[in-house]
Design brief:
By secondary structure, the chain is mainly α. The protein has one domain: Hypothetical protein af1432, CATH 1.10.3210. 73% of the residues lie in helices and 0% in strands. The radius of gyration is 18 Å and the shape is globular. The two termini are 17 Å apart.
Length: 250
C-alpha cells in the first residue's frame, strides 16, 4: 500500500475511535451473546466455517473478517426479528443457524461478476451433504442470491425463508458504515493499488452509493438501526474527503 494510503487509513481509524459505539449491539446484547455463542460452538456452523476458511480471500475487503461480522449480525437480526414474529425455542435457534450459514457463504464467490448468483449456486452444492433439509438449503441459497443492493430479488417460498434473506441483507449492509472506512476500503486499495488521483476522483461517487443504502434496509430492526450506522460511516467518509482535499492537497 502506498504511504499516502497508509496515512489516510490511520486518520480514518482515529476518526472512527471518536464515534460512539453502535446502539444495535448494545440494545440487543442478549441476542449478540447468543449469536456469538452459536457462531463459536454450533457443530454445523463451525464445520461450515472450517470448510470456507481456505476459500475466502481478504484481498477485496470482503474476507473472513467481513464474513464473520455479517454472520454475527445476521444471527442477531434473526433472533430479534424471529422473536417479534412469534418464533421461540428450537425453531428460533434453527432459523438463527440458517441465517448464520447464509452469512458465512454470502461472499464466497466475491470475485465473480455476478457473485450473488454464483455464490448461491456454489452454496447449493456445498451444503448438500450437511444435515439440512432441501427447504433449508433453498432458503440459505435464496438469501445469498438476494444479498446485493440495487438488484432485483427473488421472493422466498415462505415467511421464514424471506426472513433469512432479509436478515442477511441488512447484516451485510450494516458493514457499509464505519467498517467500510476502517477496513474494507483499505483492503480494496491494497489489492487494486489505484492511482491517488483516481481514488480521490471516484470517492464522491462511492459516498453517493453508500448514501443510497440508507433507504434499502428490509427488516424493521434494520430500518431502525441501519441508517444511523450508515450515517456514522458517511461522517468518517466526509471528513476523510475533507482531509484529502484540504490537508493533503489531493
Amino acid at each position: 500500500m502506498k504511504p499516502i494510503y497508509q496515512r489516510l487509513r490511520k486518520r480514518t481509524l482515529q476518526l472512527s475511535s471518536q464515534l460512539p459505539p453502535s446502539e444495535f449491539h448494545s440494545d440487543f446484547a442478549w441476542a449478540s451473546d447468543r449469536s456469538a455463542h452459536t457462531l463459536a460452538s454450533h457443530h454445523l456452523v463451525s464445520q461450515l466455517q472450517e470448510s470456507i476458511a481456505g476459500i475466502i480471500d481478504d484481498d477485496l475487503g470482503h474476507g473472513l473478517h467481513h464474513t464473520l461480522s455479517v454472520t454475527l449480525d445476521a444471527g442477531i437480526l434473526m433472533l430479534v426479528e424471529g422473536k417479534a414474529s412469534g418464533l421461540t425455542g428450537r425453531l428460533l435457534d434453527r432459523q438463527m443457524v440458517l441465517a448464520q450459514c447464509a452469512g458465512l457463504l454470502h461472499d464466497v464467490k466475491r470475485k465473480e461478476a455476478d457473485h450473488s448468483a454464483c455464490g448461491a449456486k456454489f452454496a447449493e452444492t456445498l451444503l448438500a451433504p450437511y444435515p439440512l433439509t432441501p427447504s433449508e438449503i433453498h432458503d440459505i441459497c435464496l438469501a445469498i442470491r438476494n444479498h446485493e443492493a440495487f438488484k432485483a430479488t427473488v421472493d422466498a417460498a415462505s415467511d421464514m425463508g424471506q426472513l433469512v434473506s432479509d436478515c442477511l441483507y441488512d447484516a451485510d449492509k450494516f458493514q457499509w458504515g464505519p467498517p467500510n472506512f476502517t477496513k474494507t476500503l483499505w483492503d480494496m486499495v491494497a489489492y487494486y493499488d489505484p492511482p491517488v488521483e483516481s481514488f480521490v476522483a471516484k470517492f464522491p461517487g462511492g459516498m453517493s452509493r453508500i448514501t443510497q443504502i440508507r433507504a434499502t434496509f428490509r427488516t424493521s430492526t434494520g430500518r431502525k438501526y441501519g441508517p444511523p450506522i450508515i450515517d456514522q460511516g458517511l461522517a468518517i467518509g466526509n471528513e476523510l474527503y475533507r482531509i484529502m482535499k484540504n490537508e493533503f492537497g489531493l
